[in-house]
Amino acid sequence: MFEVVCAVLLAVALDRFVPEHFRVDPFMWVRAMGEFVAQRFDGDSRAHGTIALVIVVVVVLIVIVILHFVLGLIAWIFQFAFDVIVLFWCVGLHRLGQRAEDVVDALQAGEIPVANEKLRTLSGQLSDDLSEPSIAHDTVVAVLKQGNSNVIAPLFWFALLGPFGAILQRMTGALSRLWAGDAERAVGFGWATVHLSNLLDWAPARVTALSYAAVGSFEDALRCWRDAGDVWSDSADVPLLAAGLGAMQMKNCEVAAGGDDDEALDLVTADTTHVQRALALVWRALLFWLLLVFLLLVFSLVAS
Length: 304
Fold this sequence. Notes:
With 304 residues, the protein is mostly helical. The protein is built from 14 helices and no strands. It has one domain (2-303). α6 packs parallel to α7, α7 packs across α10 (191-215) and α10 packs antiparallel against α11.
């Protein structure tokens, strides 16, 4: 437990303080491998997609297992450093914040088309409506989603399965975006990858939703999450967005629960301040869990 906490703290610190020009994107190689495998197995069927997924996952995890084992034989500190570096690669809070701030800067400069392109860099999608409120809203949604997939979920799986869990979660997400970029491919070749990604995000998404509630407007977040009616489904996005938007008080679910005023369900007019508030919410959610785990560790050490 102590090693896990230390690894998480060091990885988060590296993510916060390592300059961008010293960073590498290890999932670039996963995407390249995914493209290579897809060219040979993409028969637009679930069976072919499942085989391709197994090949990529098994190859990458075997490499991670071998490196982890060999470094452990040399010295414990090398193995620990490897775990920290892997987690540092998987936690993308700095990159999330930087890309969201790029959207904010473009919106504040009045460069709407540029902001829309920055949004695509962040979320992989352009906004349907070329207006500041629409782009700001879509950016908030992307930040809330990636607060789970790029921050809380890797830490969650690292705590359970070590570096293998963190790599598996991020790698599956990268392959899901690569192999299921459109609806038709998601039904066929990308089906297995999408389902595995949803499975790996299911529990962390609810942990993240609770985190947003704990560090935001608690009652509003839980009310919106409850009214979403999707607590136990296989969806990760619905609880995240319901709790996140409620925690930020961007959605009013109180009147809607009484059924008297449909207008109360409308989102507030989003702007750049809401993007910055969403980033702050993700940071507070991360700090909430780091503080909680740290206190539990101190308590266990004192009790022993």
